[in-house]
Amino acid sequence: MLVISATAAIWFLPLVLVVCLWVCFTDMKYMRILNKAVIVLFAIFVVIGPFVLPMEVYAWRYVQMLAVLVAGIALNAGGAVGAGDAKFAAAAAPFIHLGDLRFVMALFAATLLAAFASHRLVRATSLRKLAPDWKSWQSGSRFPMGLALAGTLGLYLLLGALYGATPG
């Protein structure tokens, strides 16, 4: 059982999943996570959050976002992650219940391995001809991290909807 409220996850999931798919697509095609996608993700939390989270919890999630943003800026300055990755991670942070942090880190590790292996496998085969103009195929050692970041958030909310805490 996850700590995230199943109700919150159910309300967030449909809209967040659309943004996650958008991020996966744009990062694979252009090797960029668009600012528009990050803003939409943040707006989903701003609009839906007050209705599905207690106000104190809702307010503290902004602190989580700020902490992840500061860490992301530092990692970006050091060349460890792209700016879009850092911004997406910050916008995704409020959706994560702190009680699920260990689970989310393990989920991210598994999703990252699966995304990397899948991307490299498709890139090395004729399957890449299905989308021949995608920049990620010619990116050398660079990897579209949005695939793993968005995949993790989408999977977390899906699992939260299925196995999250229920009132009562």
UniProtKB/TrEMBL annotation:
Pfam families reported in the protein's UniProt record: Peptidase_A24
Ranges of residues in domain Prepilin type IV endopeptidase peptidase: 16-116
GO terms for cellular component: membrane
Alphabetized InterPro entries for the sequence: Prepilin_IV_endopep_pep
Annotated keywords: Hydrolase, Membrane, Transmembrane, Transmembrane helix
GO molecular function terms listed in the Swiss-Prot or TrEMBL record: aspartic-type endopeptidase activity
Superkingdom field: Bacteria
Transmembrane segment boundaries: 6-25, 37-60, 103-122, 143-165
Keyword Transmembrane: yes
EC numbers: 3.4.23.43
Keyword Ligase applies: no
Protein's UniProt name: Prepilin peptidase
Species of origin: Alloyangia mangrovi
Lineage of origin: Bacteria, Pseudomonadati, Pseudomonadota, Alphaproteobacteria, Rhodobacterales
